[in-house]
Amino acid sequence: GREIPIVHRVIKVHERQDTGEVDVLTKGDNNYGDDRLLYAHGQLWLQRHHIMGRAVGFLPYVGWVTIIMTEKPIIKYILIGALGLLVITSKD
Amino acid sequence: MHSFGYRANALLTFAVTILALMCAMASFSDNFNHPSPSSSVQVLNVNWFQKQPNGNDEVSLTLNISADLQSLFTWNTKQVFVFLAAEYETSKNSLNQISLWDGIIASKEHAKFWTHTSNKYRFIDQGSNLRGKEFNLTLHWHVMPKTGKMFADKLVMSGYRLPKEYR
């Protein structure tokens, strides 16, 4: 498989007085337990460099384009084929 | 220039652009909502308060959490995620935030609620600093829209204190 980003919620934060470094624990809203099972073996906390970004909004259904292209790659080929055809058959 | 392919492509692009515009307008309309949420939390009982074998303090609380979050809902609201976090400072950590309870509010009718519960997630310190510790209970909420920008805010309730001794 390949790495994929996961959007989960932060449920614990511990910030150091001296360095400002943080220890963060996350959990998926629909999961019973926290994410420690998903972390690397022996890792209990996430630090800032483990976090790629923050969710700020929602665009419904837009993700389906990526999902369909990944699960049925034939759609990807059909789409590219059709676009290529459009370009080739243009009169100008 | 007037082939089916060109027209279909133009129509599709136009449709998606209009859709994006509608999404932006729907999200923008949320800015006209001025919410006035309220909440109060009582610590009904300290069930137990121990130092774990690994040296970290842990406390179990029974809480009564009541809130009126109805004014957060707009026509563009899908759900509101609400959680209560204990916040305190220690000599090692300038900020500790521990989520004690969370819930999902799916509709405006369910947004005025109270719950009598023990903490859903464990209240564990990094270390042994909790005896006599003063802490805030902050209610955080994320208003998740049907489409567009998510709004988050919080209400800080201060003046809570843990017992001086383990029990």
UniProtKB/TrEMBL annotation, chain A:
GO annotation, cellular component aspect: signal peptidase complex
Subcellular location: Endoplasmic reticulum membrane
Domain of life: Eukaryota
GO molecular function: peptidase activity
Membrane topology: Single-pass type II membrane protein
Main localization of the protein described in the UniProt heading: endoplasmic reticulum
GO biological process, one term: signal peptide processing
InterPro entries noted in UniProt: Peptidase_S26B
Function noted in UniProt: Catalytic component of the signal peptidase complex (SPC) which catalyzes the cleavage of N-terminal signal sequences from nascent proteins as they are translocated into the lumen of the endoplasmic reticulum. Specifically cleaves N-terminal signal peptides that contain a hydrophobic alpha-helix (h-region) shorter than 18-20 amino acids.
Protein name: Signal peptidase complex catalytic subunit SEC11
From TrEMBL, chain B:
Family statement drawn from the similarity comment of this UniProt entry: Belongs to the SPCS3 family.
Name this protein carries in UniProt: Signal peptidase complex subunit 3
Keywords linked to the UniProt accession: Endoplasmic reticulum, Membrane, Signal, Signal-anchor, Transmembrane, Transmembrane helix
Pfam families associated with the record: SPC22 (PF04573)
Topology in membrane: Single-pass type II membrane protein
Localisation per UniProt entry: Endoplasmic reticulum membrane
Biological process (GO), any one: signal peptide processing
One Gene Ontology term, aspect cellular component: signal peptidase complex
Residues making up the signal peptide according to the UniProt record: 1-26
Phylogenetic classification of the source organism: Eukaryota, Viridiplantae, Streptophyta, Embryophyta, Tracheophyta
Classification via InterPro entries: SPC3
The protein's role, per its UniProt record: Essential component of the signal peptidase complex (SPC) which catalyzes the cleavage of N-terminal signal sequences from nascent proteins as they are translocated into the lumen of the endoplasmic reticulum. Essential for the SPC catalytic activity, possibly by stabilizing and positioning the active center of the complex close to the lumenal surface.
